[in-house]
Every structure is written in C-alpha cells, then in structure tokens.
Amino acid sequence: MTISTRLTELLGIMHPILLAPMDLVSDGRLAAEVSKAGGFGIIGGGYGDEQWLARELDAAGNTKIGVGFITWSMAKKPRVLDLTLERKPVAIMLSFGEVEPHADKIKKAGARLICQVQTLAQAREALHSGADVIVAQGAEGGGHGISRATFPFVPAIVDIAGGVPVVAAGGIADGRGLAAALMLGADGVLMGTRFYASNEAAGNAAAKERIVAAGGDNTFRSILFDIVRRNVWPAPYTGRLLLNNFSTRWRGRETELLQQQEQEAARFDEARAAGDFDTAGVIAGEAVDLISEILPAAEIVERTVKEGSRLLTGASNRYRVRE
Which DSSP letter does residue 142 get? Predict the structure, then answer.
C-alpha cells in the first residue's frame, strides 16, 4: 500500500513520510530504517558536529537519506555543509535561518533543498531561494519553533507555494495526521516525536518512556532549557519539551535562571549524562497524546500509511455526504 504525491515523486520514495532531523536523535541508523521502510530519513546534523555527522553518514550506508541543519549556526562551522555535500545526500534540510547564502551550493551539488519555515515571510524567502520542498512547521511540534498552529498554517503555505510540494509538521504522529495534512493540501508529513519513541532512535530509553507516558498537556514552550544548555536561540524561537521538576521550579523565573546559569548548567549536564530527566529535558511535541508504545521505525511508517490510506479512501463510516 502506497500513497503517491508530488513529494514522493520528487524524492523517489514510496510514502510521503519524512523523519524530522532531530539533533543527536535522528542518527544514521534511524534515518536508514525510515528510508528502508519507504519514507525519507533525515539525519539531524543540528549544530554541525563534523565528527558525529561523518560517523552517522557512514552508518546510513548507501541508503537514500537527507541531512538537516540548524541554519543560523552554520556560520560558525562553514565546512560542515561542504563535507556533507561530498557524501551526496539526496537532500539538505535547512531550518531556522537565512536560506539564500547556502541555496546555490546545495543545488549545484545536486541535492534537493528542503526548507522548514514557521512564517509566511520565511516561506516566501525560501521559495525565492529555490526551495524544492517547504516544510510548514506548527508550534505543536517538539523542539524549536515559533507560534503558528499547524492546521491553519499548512493551507496558507500551500496557497503561496505554487507547484512546490509542502510538508506538514507539528503534532502529527499517525495516519489521521497524514490524512488531515493531505486534505489540507500538503504533499506529506514530517514526524519527530513519533520517531523519537522508536527502537532505533538514538535517544535515551528513559526519555522514550517519558514520551509514551506523557500527555500533550504536559508539554510547554520556553527558553529554560536553552539557558542551561548555554545556547539561547535568537528571538522569537522557543522550544517545546516535557514538563519536569526542573521546569516546574524555574518556569517564569528565566531572568533569575540566567543569573545562576553556570551553576544550573553544571547540574543539567550531570543530569543529562546520568539519564536523569527530572532535571534534563525531553524534547517532545503535543503529539505525545497519540503515542502509547515504542515501536520499530518501519512499523511506525507502515501503520501511518495504512491508517492514512484507509481514511483517504473513505473506509470510515462516521460521516455521510448528501446532495
């Protein structure tokens, strides 16, 4: 069973499902498994750790994959894009920064350019820079973003994208989300939190269990965890994570936390190394409501496609349309 769209044709894949390039979680193994299952795996290149990225590209082998970067951080490590393009990935995904300085290099290397956007202005810039795919990210998603909700944002991006495929991201974790995205005019979906709770994801097992146990009401957007990671992002970006003891203590006290940054950052580093997620953060989106078990990545792809296909072909008997 397959669902064909402009996205699947462009990337040469079976299913319109993309793995979100989650920093250090979407490694070569996970990306390869998603691609082998017919989706498109994207390694989380994040802030550009060259040694880590080279290792994970090796781990992905000859599988058809992409690599995603946090765009504004690339200025600090200008070599990382060149080193990645030498490996001939199918696509490069850029998020959170100016696309134009990197677009020509990516396209001249023969890679597809995927741009994740959070506003209409960013989408227009990406289209002007030659984006092959636009990912419309809603604030429901885990990790960094802005404030637009996925449901109204996706069709607004579709309306200005012309013939460029649009991918919906934020709050999608099953076939219902896939079907809804396609009905909104998108050509596919990008999923992060659902794949975080997979066997192959590089995340800590305790973090995965917290995702399974959590509900969407237990997530929040903040800069708290950026402060203690010594990595505060440019405004207006905030990150969505699971609530824990640390966030309950410091929420609303960001200025005070900045004043105690070094002390609290040391505690945070120790907690992360120890797998103590009462202090360390678990990045996850509101779709945790829809995740009840940790599964193989291939099974996640299969279930999502099967459920989405059933809904799109009208198998649901919960409604009727009359003239």
Answer: S
